[in-house]
Amino acid sequence: MDPWLLVYDGCDPAQEGLREALTTLGNGCFATRGAAPEARADGVHYPGTYVAGCYDRLVSRVAGRTVDNEDLVNAPNWLPLTFRARTGDWFAPDTAEILTVRRTLDMRQGTLTRLLRVRDRLGHVTRVEQRRLVSMDEPHLAALRTTLVAENWSGTLQVRSALDGDVVNAGVARYRGLAGRHLVPVRSHAADGVTGLLARTASSRVEIALAARTTLAGPHSSEFRAGRGWARHDLGVDVAEGGEVTVDKIVALYTSRDRAIASCEEAARTAVERAGSFEELLGRHTRAWARLWERAHVTAGDSDVQQVLNLYVFHLLQTVSPHVAGLDAGLPARGLHGEAYRGHVFWDEVFAFPFLAPRFPEITEALLRYRWRRLPEARWAARHAGYAGAMFPWQSASDGREETQTLHLNPRSGRWLPDNSHLQRHVGLAVACNVWRHHEATGDSAFLAGPGGELLVEIARFFASLAVREGERYAIRGVMGPDEYHDGYPGRAEPGLDNNAYTNVMTAWLMRRVLELDPADLGEEERRRFSDLARRMRVDFHDGVISQFEGYGDLKELDWAAYRAKYGDIRRLDRILEAEGDTPNRYKASKQADVLMLFHLLGADGLAEILTGLGYAWDRAAATRTVDYYLARTCHGSTLSAVVHAGVLARLRPGASQPFLVEALNSDVRDLQGGTTAEGVHLGAMAGVAVLFEGAHPRSAVRAADRCG
């Protein structure tokens, strides 16, 4: 097996969404799912092209309430290309018999190849080879080469190349009842060798322009047509039995957010006219990928593992390549691969920075500048809530306001429920951790003295104002931790938890870092408060272990064996319990690592340093007890959980890390979450797996240099 190739043979409708997501091609500016060029969204196939940072907001009615959601927009589809033999049907999934088909993703070169033989209803057999790329050299260009062989027929071969603007966001089943028509057609044209399409997003009014040049060597007929939201180019050529025809489609994509252009429509047309041949584009593209792999390759001893590692790093770089240095875009949790989480930015970069910062500091600086540009919105959010500093949103998109939904659907019960996950204030701590990681990796004192330091100070000011002095300790109340299953206390009307250990310990860590930075604009009163918080944050304990939050020890134990016996897969225990009329808030049961995130980010020694600095007794035995305690009470409902557990156990008890390492490796390539990868890959988990394998041994621990502390 070649570890640089991901190969799919045959047709499997149940797996098509997963395959399309995992064969996505992108360059950091835009990405296109691995859907077939002739396919339309039909419940099996889902073409999708997503532009970094291109969002739009629409209003929907949900459970009797008006809600607005900002989505990463499914852009006009540049792929459409089909053919027909003589007077037969245009090739589509339902008009021909697919005799053989193979898809091959070449991760080294960044190309997707499809080989197939099809027989139409009139018996014409045609062999097809298609190769596509989304240029890593020129981030506005993509290309598709199609070679057709008339195996048992002769006559006229017709090829139809099109641009399709009649596209909606409908890639996630639970969102399909919500408004999803983000594109408004503006105009299209088809003449003089080029088809073009201009659309505008409905509310954000971002213009998206496509231009395509489709060529076929030798004598052929050519017809151009355009209508509202579409443009096409039909070509016809006479072919003898066994004859071969090659069609090249070169496409340019620009938006009104791009720099150094007069208009996106003009820029797209000019780019596609100047693009050169498919071979020239391919050569430059593969050389660009070769340069990336020189910086990014992680080696494993096993070829199967190597293939997965290559795939995960490949998708990370397709989402946040060095091209993001010229953009204003964050790291979407589900990549540019689908519409899950609406393309929003969460905290997943905290799992990606250990991999990216030493190799691609230009990427990590760009991601931090995305946060820094949204400081005014974060400051306003803090002031509006009655706090100082900057309060970053749990879900971010275009302008940095809180994009977390107010309601979410439980597919198991069919009920829409209040969503309190905006209370995960710890996202600001992740931003601060990323600033420090970037600084440690680069030694860039200028960035730390400028935007990086400003982020640290403003986040510290927020947590200092969030903390309340209670006796000799400081408490933080009314938040959620990384666990996500617990959003409140049984019987208490107000949502939120008190003294989440992860939030409080990371707050103490942050205060230490800011004091170490010693910024000039920090007043003496602030210094005293920050110093006090670094020494007096409250952390609760029970049964000799860290309490995930105040009162955690009073919750009921869950009958794990009974629930596994009844339901089998209990990763989404929250949905199971809610459908039963129950809630995880009553139980010692977590979705994913929460307390263990402290070990993951700080390491056992770094955590010990913080806890003893806070005046708590702590030793290796307490650390081991704490890890074991939460291992037994976590159902791993997030792909991030296995990554964290594998890394923590690799340091504390290496022999126990293997099952979690295997799960982390298989999380997306095997779609362990049961259909979620088809809606977009889990980028934080992919990056986290790469970090786990950075050492010489496949199960090596995350290196100390990759930690925050």
Quick synopsis:
Helices cover 33% and strands 23% of the residues.
| End-to-end CA span | 40 Å
Helix content: 25-40%
Largest sheet: 9 strands, antiparallel
Rounded radius of gyration (Å): 26 Å
Structural class: alpha+beta
Mean pLDDT: 95
Shape verdict: elongated
Strand order of the largest sheet: 1-7-8-9-10-17-14-13-12
- Quaternary status: single chain
Number of helices: 18
- The poorly predicted ranges are 695-709
DSSP strand content: 15-25%
How many runs of DSSP E, i.e. beta strands? 23
What would you note in describing this structure?
By secondary structure, the chain is of the alpha+beta class. The chain is built from 18 helices and 23 strands. The strands form six sheets. A nine-stranded antiparallel sheet has the order 1-7-8-9-10-17-14-13-12. Strands 2-3-4-5 form a four-stranded antiparallel sheet, covered by helices on one side. A four-stranded antiparallel sheet has the order 6-11-16-15, with no helix packed on it. α6 crosses α9 and α10 crosses α14. The radius of gyration is 26 Å and the shape is elongated. The two termini are 40 Å apart.
